[in-house]
Amino acid sequence: MTPTDAERAAALAALPGAPPPGTSRPVILDCDPGHDDALAILLACASPELDVLAVTTVGGNSGLANTTRNALRVLTLLGRTDVPVAAGSERPLLREPLVQPDFHGESGLDGADLPDAGFAARSEAAVELMASLVRASRMPVTLVPTGPMTNVALFLRAFPSLRDRIGAISLMGGSLGAGNTTASAEFNIWQDPEAAAIVFGAGIPILMAGLDVTHQALVLPGDVDRLDGLGTRTGRVFADLMRFFAIHHRARYGWEGPPIHDAVAVAVLVAPWVVTRRAMRVDVEIDDGLTRGRTVGDEEGRSGRPVNAEVGVELDRARFMDLVIDAVATFA
Ligand code: BDR
Ligand code: CA
User: Fold this and answer.
1) Would you place residue 102 in the very low, low, confident or very high pLDDT band (cuts 50, 70, 90)?
2) What's the mean pLDDT in 34-58?
3) 248 catalytic, yes or no?
4) Which of 118, 208, 242, 321 would suit a FRET pair with 256, their CA atoms being 20 to 30 Å apart?
5) CA atoms within 13 A on the CB side of 330
6) In sequence order, what are the residues at sequence separation of 6 or more whose Cβ sits closer than 8 angstroms to the Cβ of residue 210?
7) Of 35, 104, 215, 261, which one is the catalytic site residue?
8) pLDDT at 182
């Protein structure tokens, strides 16, 4: 059933860190674009429910130079050169980065004819930009990490007095079930488990879009046709990006289309009714061994530790895809 306006307003107001009714939620996207990160940026920029204060970048799907360049190029395509971009951490807190060019290509965003960046990244580091924006914001800020959580962990450690100014963290990462990088670990958490452990342990309410829900966010061939059918440059670019992103998912998993994981972490802030969530304690395994990087969901509260996350478990794929395609349609 389609939610009524009153039900939509109530669902938005019930989210952690919700702004006063009728105002936009200030967000900072911390990402490693990345095909699905690019759609997350687009969805955030298209949504009046959100006020995108900045995009910060981290090494992950590709090296930091590439992910930063890709963020600038995506924002240039969207005509949002007013959104400040700052580069953050090139590498995880403790370990060497894992490079995995299969899914996103050598550039981190292969497959489409994106414009050159029409503006430059700021000179300050990601954590400095986050701190100045959080300090200046009238309302609590929501962080949306869709890459390894290194920048967010560094921010929380470097600016502890600003922690209470973060209303929520809506992240893509982890899994209650199997991983996609090791049998236990999802890629964003596997890259930097120590950083993820800091984020999950910060005492800030978390909305977790893990593989349990993001593997339902498949862009099917009919959706790509709809993107093409928009007849716009942005529609064509994202159709091409999805075709590229599909290649390795088809070869590796036999899936009909790629999962746009990161867009789910934004969608839940804009249309929470598309993601069914369960509240629980989630902690990150940082020890070496088979389960390093696993997000352990304590659904039955056995540990007695306080609930820290609402974990996405089911997606209304049709509504989610309408939301994403309608968002693409708002750009030329
Ligand atoms: C996550 O890893 C990256 O490849 C995607 O951008 C997403 O953030 C999924 O495991
Ligand atoms: Ca990502």
Assistant:
1) confident
2) 98
3) no
4) 208
5) 15
6) 172, 173, 174, 175, 176, 186, 295, 311, 312
7) 261
8) 96
What span, in angstroms and rounded, lies between the C-alpha atoms of 217 and 309? 20
Report the nearest atom of ligand 1 relative to the CA of 181.
Answer: 10
Give the model confidence (pLDDT) of 202-211 as tens digits. Answer: 999 999 999 9
Write b or e for each residue in 314-329: b if 16 or more Cβ atoms lie within 10 A of its Cβ, otherwise e: ebbeebbbebbbebbb
Q: What angle do CA 14, 46, 314 make, to 5 degrees?
A: 45
Q: Tokens 């609930």 identify what position?
A: 307
Assess contact for 235 and 229: CB atoms under 8 A.
Answer: yes
> Which pLDDT tens digit goes with each residue over 229-245?
999 999 999 999 999 99
Residues 70-95 pLDDT 10s: 999 999 999 999 999 999 999 999 99
Query: What is the number of alpha carbons within 13 Å of residue 306 lying toward its C-beta?
Result: 8
With the most atoms of ligand 1 within 8 angstroms of its CB, the residue from 262, 264, 266, 294 to mutate is 262
Q: Give the class (CATH, top level) of 25-329.
A: alpha beta
Query: How would you list the strands of the sheet with 295-298, edge to edge?
Result: 85-87, 50-57, 25-31, 141-145, 166-172, 206-209, 309-315, 275-284, 295-298
Q: Which atom of ligand 1 is nearest to the CA of 61?
A: 4
With a cut of 90, say whether residue 101 has pLDDT above it. no
Distinct helix (H) and strand (E) counts, the chain:
12, 9
Closest alpha carbon to 15 in 27, 2, 4 = 27
Structure tokens at 230: 């928009």
The yes-or-no verdict on residue 145 having pLDDT over 80 is yes
Q: How far is the CA of 331 from the centre of ligand 1 (A)?
A: 24
Q: Is the CB of 260 under 6 A from ligand 1?
A: no
pLDDT at 200: 98
Cα distances (angstroms) measured from residue 294 to each of 103, 173, 185: 21, 10, 5
